Amino acid sequence: MTALADLQRFEPFKRLGADGSALLAQGATRRDVSRASTVLHKGQPVSGAYVVLRGRLRVFTIAPNGTEATLYFIDPGETCVLALNSLFNDLLYPAWAEAETSAAVALIPGAVYRKLFATEASIRDLTMSTLSTLVYRLMAEVEQLHVCSQKQRMVQFILQHANSNGELRMTQQQIAQHLGTTREVVARLVGELVKKRLVASRRGCIAIRDLFGLRRAVAPNAPDAR
Fold first, then answer.
1. Domain extent for 123
2. What's the CA gap between 8 and 217, in Å, rounded?
3. Using H for helix, E for strand and C for coil, what is the string for the chain?
4. Quick one: 132 and 56 in the same domain?
5. Is 224 among the domain residues?
6. How far is residue 188's CA from residue 208's CA, in Å, rounded to a whole number?
7. Domain ends where: 94, 121, 145?
8. For position 11, which CATH number holds?
9. How many domains does the chain have?
């Protein structure tokens, strides 16, 4: 499957006119990446727009002490707003982006994306939607940092990222990287949740045992059910 065909599975690219589709076909390329592979490095010049086709990317920063903290995730059909900002403002990429899972990414060259942005309403909509979504996510994260305790942030993370079976399949080190803390802190917090029988912990997995009890850890007045 070509990069164009991959991209046209997503609504903004389905809506391109004939000229826009032809322009995209000339420049877009596809890159398959394995889990934990770095897609963008901090300080790297950005050559185009990155659109996730399959899997998920994690965008993160690293503190001077080496601690990682996740800024946001990029899911299929989404593009990286920091890369777009770097592209339009001729800046170096200010973070790192790596594959959270095995993934496929389309790269749309800068000149092509700029022209599509100027001529195609769906690309302008995608760009603005990406920006607004990131602002919302970052504001939510800032609110958590200032209002929530470490335990509340941990519980929020479990609730947001557990699968339909109520399992968060991550190591404690991976969770620590997302939350911008250490594995030892995560281990202590998980241990407290296990003692309260809110979760069960095994190697590489945290399983929710008491969903409503876990919710009350971050929202004490929340009802158990509708």
1. 3-145
2. 42
3. CCHHHHHCCCHHHHCCCHHHHHHHHHHCEEEEECCCCEEECCCCECCEEEEEEECCEEEEEECCCCCEEEEEEECCCCECHHHHHHHHHCCECCCEEEECCCEEEEEEEHHHHHHHHHHCHHHHHHHHHHHHHHHHHHHHHHHHHHHCCHHHHHHHHHHHHCCCCCEECCCHHHHHHHHCCCHHHHHHHHHHHHHCCCEEEECCEEEECCHHHHHHHHCCCCCCCC
4. yes
5. no
6. 17
7. 145
8. 2.60.120.10
9. 2
User: Does one domain contain both 128 and 42?
Assistant: yes
Q: What is the Cα–Cα distance from 76 to 100, expressed in whole angstroms?
A: 12
pTM: 0.67
The pLDDT value recorded for residue 48 is 94
CATH value at residue 154? 1.10.10.10
pLDDT of residue 226: 42
* pLDDT for 161: 83
pLDDT tens-digit profile, the chain (226 residues):
689 999 999 999 999 999 999 999 988 999 999 999 999 999 999 999 999 999 999 998 887 667 778 888 899 999 998 999 899 999 999 999 999 999 999 999 999 999 999 999 999 999 988 887 776 666 656 555 544 677 888 888 888 788 888 999 989 988 888 787 888 989 999 999 999 999 999 999 999 999 888 888 776 654 554 4
In sign, the C-alpha dihedral spanning 72, 76, 78, 84 is positive
Q: Is the dihedral of CA 208, 224, 159, 153 positive or negative?
A: negative
